[in-house]
Amino acid sequence: MAIDLSGKTALVTGATGQLGRVMIRTLANAGADVVIHFQSNEAKAAELLEEIKGMGRRGVAVQADVTDRSSLEAMKRKVNEQLGRVDIVVANAVVQYQWTSILEQPAEDYESQFESCVMQNVYLAQLFVPDMIGNKHGRMIGINTECSMQNFKTQSAYVAGKRGMDGVYRVLAKEVGEHGITVNQVAPGWTISERDRENQTEHSEEYERTVPLARRGTDQEIANVVAFLASDLASFITGAYVPVNGGNVMPAI
């Protein structure tokens, strides 16, 4: 068996980020045309687009603010004009902020996490799922986090946003399943990225001691699961929260 996304178009938000760029390459390698969303890193988006075209895939790089519905509407219009319908949506973008204790965390950080974790996914669903319903096929994939189960100190704003996202995805899975659309979440652990390789920061003995597989995962391992969930191999999986963290957190029954 092989993952074959030929004839599909995949959108990845936050596609120029450390994980997003690997997901874009992986989806394209599996045969998908791609939408490279970016917030501010236009140069990286252009570089990725050229790389994708070199694979023989179609693509478009589009700037948008994922917390602003009108901005996402403009992105969708451009995508539809250049590539047509989007079959796979990967919600990866999130606002970055400085973590601290609940007593010290500014209110705007909770608001930014709600906007980028919850409302981004509401907007993406409202904009792209109707086309999927019309096609009787589609994939909504959200990038969650192991932090949602850890609830460690200083994680509160991030955890609150991602747990809100989890609720949206679970309900959406029940609402659109009858149309052949699957809705799933991938929850990475602390992942090795291109930046880690460049800075030689791939290892953390303290963290790795907590992981049953005794190592950190890689960006490619996360992207592999995203590609699997985007494919027909995962056609009967929906409503799932899938940790990809070497067993560091384990959802219970």
Automatic annotation (TrEMBL):
Write down the SUPFAM superfamilies for this protein, in alphabetical order: NAD(P)-binding Rossmann-fold domains
Please identify the protein, giving its name as recorded.
SDR family oxidoreductase
> Which Gene Ontology terms cover its molecular function?
oxidoreductase activity
User: GO annotations under biological process?
Assistant: bile acid metabolic process
Tell me which family the UniProt entry assigns to this protein.
Belongs to the short-chain dehydrogenases/reductases (SDR) family.
This protein's UniProt keywords: Oxidoreductase
Which Pfam family, any one of them, does this sequence belong to?
adh_short_C2
